[in-house]
């Protein structure tokens, strides 16, 4: 089981490295972090908390992304459904924010952002499967 967790975390880290590299070097690309930051503060509002420091909010969101995505990839991308799991996760990242009362513009404002968002999550699933195949 620990090999699946390691592979899932590797895929999640790869996803975040890809996202951050592109986000910091190009314009009009997905900003998945913005959706995550909004979601985190919205959840914290339920318990009368809020993270106002931008760096702390970014770090907390990034940590949550790596852990959450890592666990998702560990349970789905290490199986025969690895490609499908990445595509489904990406489609969820595009379709669910608006349904959850979040601003979906950072990931769904344009067709290009939608396609890139799905591609990022697919990339994470592929990396997870490659890592898992090497260490199992």
Topology:
Blueprint: H1 2-25, H2 32-45, H3 54-76, H4 82-99, H5 105-108, H6 111-135
Quick summary:
With about 140 residues, the protein is mainly α.
What does this structure look like?
- The chain is mainly α and 136 residues long.
- The chain has one domain.
- It is 79% helix and 0% strand.
- The chain contains 6 helices and no strands.
- α1 runs antiparallel to α6 (111-135) and α2 (32-45) crosses α3.
What gross morphology would you assign? globular
Low-confidence stretches: none
**Which H/E pattern describes the elements?**
HHHHHH
Structural class: mainly alpha
Strand content: under 5%
Mean pLDDT: 94
Give the tally of structural domains.
1
Helix content: over 70%
Number of helices: 6
Distance between the termini: 10 Å
How would a textbook summarize the main sheet? none
Number of strands: 0
> What is the radius of gyration?
15 Å
Task: Provide key terms for this protein.
136 residues; mainly alpha; 6 helices; 79% helix; 0% strand
